[in-house]
Each structure stands twice: as structure tokens, then as C-alpha cells.
Amino acid sequence: MLVVDDQPLFRAGLVALLNAAPGMTVVGEAADGESAVCLVESSAPDVVLMDIRMPRMTGMAALERIVASGSPARVLVLTTFDLDEYVYEALRLGAAGFVLKESEPARLLAAITAVASGEMQFSPTVMSRLVAAYLRDDVAAAPCAPPGLDELTDREREVLRLVGTGITNADIASRLTVTEGTVKTHLNRVMTKLRLTSRAQAVVMAYESGLVTPQLVARTA
């Protein structure tokens, strides 16, 4: 784990919490995005827990640099209620999930575990903020079917739609009454046909193509 936050006391608390949790080890900490990018390269963390607003280089800029570098590190963004405008863009850039700074320790640890295992993680509150961003004119342009969408089978479309709501593969498997392995197979085929490289891109695609609507998110929450 790499912990990135410009508030020393908050960062120290996170480091202590994570080091005390079974199976988790903090390999580094940083107070700004520039240091975070360097530490990702030198310490190769599995998960980066990163704030958005920081000096020198913001969390958004650092996220973009980390993803562009090809690092396998998955970035879990720390967010607060007043950062709604960043949620959708962070997802577009490749964030693996979002967790509120006000979250209970157990929820934070569960989010980190989910992200480390390859899932995406959204709290219900953050998902509602994502829907709100989608409804704004600057995000909710007319849905546009991307190349390859017509090649998806009905089941592949259904899997993509559910991925777009932010739920896990296990939850999707339960809803569709199939195995988790089957869900992964369908999702891999979706990503191949749509030329996607990450689950985050699949979520964005589901929104931009109109497969995900606020009503669907409300039903799956």
C-alpha cells in the first residue's frame, strides 16, 4: 500500500490503521502527487490510496501519470462530499474506486481489499454523486453507441450494464444466477470487443453509451 495525503495527522492515522490490518503493509507514504508518482515506480505498491487535492501535483494529475506509466498499481481515490466534480473524471482517468474520508475503518479496509483483488469500489454515497455528475450537461451528452457495441451479445450487454453500476463480479454473478468465473469471461469478451483496457473504462463506456441510467443505479443500489 502507498498512502498519499497532504495532511500529516490524517496520513499517519491511515498508515497506522493499514499496518495493523491483517495482510496489509504500507510500503510508502507521500504528501503530494509528484512524490506519489515517484514512489509508485520505486516501491511498486499493489494499491495507492490517494487524496485529490494536494500541493505540487494534484491527485488527479498523479492518477493520470500512474495509469499512463503502465503501472499495475490500482488507485483508490479518497474523496469528500465537496469533490463531486472530480468523481467522474477520476473514473475516466482510471481510478479503481472511491472511498469517503468519513468512512468507518472497516469500510475502508473492505474497499482496499476489493480493489486489490481487481474489483472496483464505490460507496453508495459516491455512486449517487457519480449519477448526479452524469445528469449534468457537461457529462450527460446524448448517448453515443461506441464501435463494437452492436457486436455484444445480450448477456454481454447485461454484464456491462451491471459493471457500470459499480457492483462487484460476485454481486453480478448472484443477480444473473451464474458463476463469478462466467461473469469474468463475459467481461473479458466485452473489453476485447470494445477495445477497453480497464474496468474503469468499462464503467465510463456503460454511462456514455446510455446502458447505465440513474434509474438502473437506484434499482441495483
Automatic annotation (TrEMBL):
Modification 4-aspartylphosphate, positions: D51
Gene Ontology molecular function: any one: DNA binding
Keywords: DNA-binding, Phosphoprotein, Transcription, Transcription regulation
Record SUPFAM superfamilies: C-terminal effector domain of the bipartite response regulators, CheY-like
HTH luxR-type domain location: 145-210
Pfam families referenced in this protein's UniProt entry, alphabetically: GerE, Response_reg
InterPro entries per UniProt: CheY-like_superfamily, NreC/VraR/RcsB-like_REC, Sig_transdc_resp-reg_C-effctor, Sig_transdc_resp-reg_receiver, Tscrpt_reg_LuxR_C, WalR-like
Gene3D superfamilies the record matches: 3.40.50.2300
Keyword Transcription regulation belongs to the record: yes
CDD domains, per the entry: LuxR_C_like, REC_NarL-like
GO terms classed as biological process: phosphorelay signal transduction system; regulation of DNA-templated transcription
Domain Response regulatory: 1-116
Keyword RNA-binding: no
PANTHER family: TRANSCRIPTIONAL REGULATORY PROTEIN NARL-RELATED, TWO-COMPONENT RESPONSE REGULATOR
Protein name: DNA-binding response regulator
Organism: Lentzea guizhouensis
